[in-house]
Design goal:
By secondary structure, the protein is mainly alpha-helical. It contains 12 helices and 2 strands. Strand 1 and strand 2 form a beta hairpin. The model has no long low-confidence stretch (mean pLDDT about 80).
Length: about 210
Amino acid sequence: QEILRERPKWKYIQVQYVHLLIDLGALTPAQKLIEKYSLQEDLDQRFYGNQAVKYIKWNDSEEAEKLLLKNSHSQDSMLKQRAKFDLIMLYRKKSLMNKVLQEKQLLDELDKEFPFWLQEAEADALVASKKPEDALLIYRELESKHQLYAKDYPQSFNLQMSIFACFIDMEHFEEAFGVLEDINSYIGGLREERGLLVNNYHWVSIR
């Protein structure tokens, strides 16, 4: 802001400032600056991508879907891919599992490498579609990746509970309760919260 006050026509700083606002989620003031400095060609692709995510966070699924469908036909390859990924997450959030699987199948025709949260959404949709065997394969793959890259993959508890649900749906009850025992063995009955030991609700929920 100081630099822009001194040099209001410095486009590089205009762009950097608007990027900062976008990354902070301040999309309304960012949009005003885009219009003020005529930066539509420089920033619209990134702006629209973040705007769609903001709609999802606000639970404005209608506006999110409208914008994501528009972005998914963009000439900008990064925005196009991001829109397709985010569209799957929107459908997952709305529990439109058939659409999750439809969109994922379209992506499979173009690429084979996906972020874990996209694979997890597909597996969740397979469970909902009464295909626990297929879902289990994905959860097991994520579980093995979690062991190698724990910081980049879902927490083991979430995966284990998804695997448990698959075994229940498959009526493999012995394997299902074996998963619960494994969870209890590393979670424990207490956890630390603000310096105090309190009941671990994950552990309590499966006793």
